[in-house]
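Hey, can you fold this?
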Amino acid sequence: MLATPGHSPGSRSYHFPQEQVVFVGDLLFQRFIGRSDFPGGDFETLINSVVQQIFPMGPDTVVYPGHGLSTTVGDEMQHNPYFSEFAQ
């Protein structure tokens, strides 16, 4: 379990390294991010949670959001407009 605040103060993500999967709730979606405009949410904190906690898992890690399609860390680093500085 990882603390990944930003969408809400107590947000958590669940990483299973041997399976190369992470469940992120409303932190990150396919080529989008979760909302941070609710009480206790914070845009910069959300971005930092993804960059510091999720991206180091490696590009092949499958990301399962709370809604919508799954994605991968690599796809988000390459194609998510909120993280364009990570695209190579």
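Oh, and this one too while you're at it.
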Amino acid sequence: MRKKTRFSLSRTLIYLSPILLLTACNLGGGGKGGDSTIKIDQVGGEFNLSKDLTLFVPSNAVDQEIEITVREIPSEEVNTLRQLPEDGESQLIAAFEILPHGQTFQIPVQIQIENIDYSENNLPLIYSLDLEDQSFQLAEIRTSYDRQSGDLILFLDHFSSYAAYLEEGYISPECQENPCRCEEISIEQSDAYNICSQDDCQVTESDVSVTFDACGGNTDHLLMREISPSCQPRMMISPDQEVIPVEGSTQVNVELGLSCAPFKNQDVFYSSNQLGQVDPIQTITDSAGKTETTFTAGEEPGTAEVTAEAFGSYYLLEITLNDESEYGKEKFYELEETTTIEIGNIQGTFEGSFNTCLGGFCVHDYQVRFDFVVDEIDWEAGSWTGTADVTQSGNVTTTWEDAHVENVNTPDFEGLEIFGNAFPETEELDLLSLAVVNVGGPDDFYGTFLIVADDGGGSFELFILGFPLEVKADLDVEGIIPFRFKVDGSDTPQSGAGSIFLPNEDGPTMPGTYTLTLEY
């Protein structure tokens, strides 16, 4: 029979250090390693695997005879898996592999590790090893510990590879106030949840429950978050818009992480060159490791730079008990990243195709194109100014009998001065201002054509199209609305149905379609 053991612990909130000191022990303590092979059957029994390692198999744990092998794992192999620094204070008790892997039992078997050199402020924890995949994480296992005899018992329902550690902790005054907390204990470990893994970096969370049997089964729950030493802080910075207009703005996004894991509650500081400014100049990352600021360009075009800086510290280990946290080793970092934003004048293109019949003539596939530049925006005054080059073309026919069309003229224009409304609340401009241009006279801006009588009875000249030209979007419930667009280009290209207003005509006279695009 397994000998009777008593268990006690001074406190359950244990200060786990990711820095481990591997000390030699009979099993896995730095020796060359050895194999023990035994056979077990339905009868069960007690089997000495080494000086300090004993296997207890209850009767009927297996339904047939099986052969098992226990291999000692040298501390060097465990050290490689966990990537331990050279210094440390936690103690490797034992490391071993039990074969065949995955062998299950109808009743849990027990592995007892004896003669542990115990310090009363330490708690034994068991880690699961995968030697093939080179992984190391807290095992899902139930254990019992007797600090007086120095015996640790592992209850196993299947075989795998394990490493047992005494993790550093501290003595709580609760032992003086509640002596039962220093008596028998049972330890329940959950399987470590892998938050993320990237290259050599691994971030895990685990639950450990410590039950004080002498305190009526009172249980403390510990949440442990561990970051492998190879994880390194990183920063990414990017603007929503890589190109913005003069006096335009864009959000600049920053994301901080510890390799693959979000880096929350970190201060980030911002600065920019003389072409603009950032606001706010300091933010804090959220639970996803993200934060942002806004860059606003000045009056000069060019390449703006926005720099984000973060410096502080973090902990390789965090243990939370009853909403109170303790921390392991503190590490410090400094990060700096810069992104660029191009600032330039807004350049836009409006293209439309329209058709109509008026009186005795019809305009077919009338094409008009405005290539415009916004030279200046006065948000305070609510206006903008610029220039436009206009091209136009189309076919004209007449509906009158015994007549034809001659001398169709659809002139192009360069450098037309345009202006319009600016809306600072939404950072929008409108194209209603294309209705107003400064040119010399009617002959300069009207397209013309002749309708000639086929019988030689005469002819007369008509205007096709000209300025003031009002190109507007489709009707809404209240009437005509102008084209409007955001200066950051986020709502372009726009496209849809529209109409052209001809001079001295009431109502939309030339329906068609349009497209509006922007660039810088």
